[in-house]
Fold:
Amino acid sequence: MDVGAGDQGIMFGYASDETEDCMPLTHSMATRLGKTLTDVRKSGELWWLRPDGKTQVTIEYLQKADGSVEPKKIHTVVISTQHAEPSKATRKKECAGYSGPDMTAPSMEEMNKLIVEHVVKKTLRDIELKNGEPAITLFGD
Structure:
């Protein structure tokens, strides 16, 4: 019997009022970051990305006197993704059927910066917190 990898799912056993979809905020953020990562890859915006990205979000919370919690800041955003070889791979070789101007994949440092701008910040601007503020207000120093 072939059962596959067996580690491809995440299950939560509770509902939360942190988000409109009743999922914990960290889960909603991580899921939406993964979707944005896929979107910028498929659109060609970050053509050097490859499939199979992973995301993880850790949030620091403030506990109130009544026991409720509210997000204080985003502690950590981790994105792990496959990518073309930095500073060497070319778009014409990486992207089948691409006929536009050729370009070279950015350096690793530049890839990281582009992912923060085009994936992390873009996604967090689109997520609204319970207090009506965009989630990007929790991101940064």
User: Anything to note?
Assistant: The helical segments are 25-42, 91-94, 108-126. The chain is about 30% helix and 15% strand.
